[in-house]
Write a structure and sequence with these properties.
This protein is α+β, with helices and mostly antiparallel strands and 323 residues long. The protein has a domain of 125 residues. Helix content is 41%, strand content 19%.
Length: 323
């Protein structure tokens, strides 16, 4: 069996981005995960059907990671990093499309920001965003809130409890949800949960599953995400226990992530210049970087034989690649 690097056990069970470095300290792979510890540990699991991956794992000398506030933020950070530095083991920069949500006379998916009405985003994942828009429409019924509706639409508005001329109020409610207003979000999610449960009670399981997908998609687009979309160009620094972590924000995207050993006096000026809105993110990831560095330096942590096949002395638990 292969023994995982000691820093794997120090990873948090949180969304984030990870990268592997080889013996020459080169970044060879960048990936993302909903659960960093579980995903990275899976590389040391049962890889008998993937010999190329087994060979690569044997070359991993160090693991570094960034803890993100959501899966969406992790997806954006991975995308941004890969667009500006392509490690040799990465084949693509991500498959999710970049889209927006527009509010004009209706809630709609946009492929460009546009000028009419309000635009929210950008978001990653066209399918997820279309599901989120469908969920907002299901909960708010904006399409049936206009004036001059035909007979069928007037009847649908009556059934849905939508008053004529209420479109501005409903669009404002949709905007509040997309701005992450807690109460507005709770109202929409409660409406969708009620419809999902009613569908399940009526044995309409496909509809219930569809509504659950819409709920999940709304959580995706409204989750905390700041590594893409910010307006200013800034350098972001965090320091902990001798490790300085830095992120470079340019043209609205966090494009670079570095970390190095640094004494506190030299780091202080950089950390103090970090914008207040980024302090929690930077400090949290400085603590994580220092913890992983300490695990790497622990006895046996950087042994050249660490990744080789070991002969077990007794039955041991196996890390299993998640399905």
């Amino acid at each position: 069996m292969r023994v995982p690097l000691p820093e794997v056990r120090a990873l948090p069970a949180e969304p984030g981005v990870y990268r592997f470095r080889d013996e020459r300290d080169r970044t060879v792979y960048i990936g993302r995960a909903s659960n960093l510890r579980r995903r990275v540990a899976s590389y040391w699991g049962d890889l008998r059907g993937r010999p190329h991956l087994r060979r690569r794992v044997s070359r991993i000398a160090r693991v570094e990671a960034v803890s993100c506030d959501s899966d969406h933020e992790a997806a954006w950070l991975e995308r941004n990093l890969l667009e500006h530095a392509r490690p040799p083991w990465n084949r693509t920069t991500g498959v999710e499309s970049t889209v927006y949500i527009g509010l004009d006379r209706r809630v709609e998916v946009r492929h460009e920001p546009g000028t009419a009405g309000l635009t929210f985003g950008p978001y990653l994942g066209g399918d997820k965003v279309r599901l989120a828009v469908s969920g907002l429409e299901r909960a708010l019924a904006v399409a049936y809130a206009g004036d001059g509706l035909g007979g069928f639409d007037r009847e649908m508005a009556r059934v849905r409890g939508v008053a004529p001329g209420s479109r501005p109020d409903l669009l404002a409610e949709a905007g509040a949800v997309l701005r992450r207003d807690r109460l507005a979000g709770e109202r929409v999610w409660a409406a969708l949960v009620e419809r999902r449960d009613a569908a399940a009670t009526a044995l309409a399981f496909e509809l219930a599953a569809r509504i659950q997908d819409e709920i999940d998609a709304l959580h995706w687009v409204t989750a905390e995400q700041k590594v893409t979309g910010a307006e200013s160009d800034v350098d972001i620094y965090g320091w902990h226990d001798g490790v300085l972590v830095s992120f470079q924000l340019r043209a609205g995207r966090v494009r670079a992530w570095t970390q190095r050993q640094c004494e506190e006096p030299a780091a202080r000026v950089r950390v103090e210049a970090t914008p207040a809105g980024w302090r929690t993110f930077a400090d949290r990831n400085a603590v994580l970087a220092a913890r992983l560095a300490a695990a790497h330096r622990a006895p046996g942590g950087n042994s050249p034989d660490h990744n080789r096949e070991a002969v077990p002395q007794r039955p041991a638990a196996r890390y299993v690649t998640p399905r």
